[in-house]
Amino acid sequence: MSSAIRTERPANDAQVSAAEVEGEIREFVRKDVASLRRFPEAGSDVFVSNLNSIVQRVAGSSVAEIDNLIGELEQLREHLHNEGQRVQREVVAYAQMSQAAMRSTKIIVESMAHFKQQNDRPRPA
Questions:
Q1: Are 17 and 61 in contact (CB under 8 A)?
Q2: Residue 91 pLDDT > 60, yes or no?
Q3: Sign of torsion, CA 32 36 39 45?
Q4: Cα separation of 75 and 78, whole Å?
Q5: Whether 43 contacts 117, CB under 8 Å
Q6: Which of 19, 43, 97, 123 is the most buried (most CB within 10 A)?
């Protein structure tokens, strides 16, 4: 059985994502400090706007990752549900086959006992 659902992420992926976020924060701080030096009166508005932009980008990627994981979990749940139903069908089929084998064995044993009784009777001379 092959699974199309892959939940493992390479450790390097988390490091790359963290490095990207750190790089964006550094870039933001560098730009913000430069804009505060040029326009000190508008500094707080620019800072808040830039901070909101970074938070939205970081949160957006986190929300997208959570949505992807939810989708994968839903697929896994459906797969497990289908497998559970398949196993139930197999168990029922096995029980039916086992009962049929028991009936067949009983018939064979009874037939053999009947033939043995006939062979054990004394034969007229």
A1: yes
A2: yes
A3: positive
A4: 5
A5: no
A6: 43
- Tokens representing 37 are 């030096």
Rounded Cα gap, residues 59 and 31, in angstroms: 21
Question: What span, in angstroms and rounded, lies between the C-alpha atoms of 106 and 125?
Answer: 34
Could you give the C-alpha distances from 117 to 37, 112, 121, 122, in angstroms and in order?
A: 114, 9, 7, 10
- The rounded distance, in Å, linking the Cα atoms of 56 and 101 is 66
Query: Would you state the pLDDT for residue 41?
Result: 54
Q: Report residue 102 as tokens.
A: 């028991």
What is the per-residue pLDDT across 7-60, written as a single tens digit (0 to 9) for each? 444 456 666 677 777 777 777 777 766 665 555 555 566 667 777 777 777 777
State pTM to two decimals: 0.45
Q: Are 79 and 5 within 8 A, CB to CB?
A: yes
Secondary structure, 3-state, 75-90 = HHHHHHHHHHHHHHHH
Token pair of 117 as six digits: 């009784």
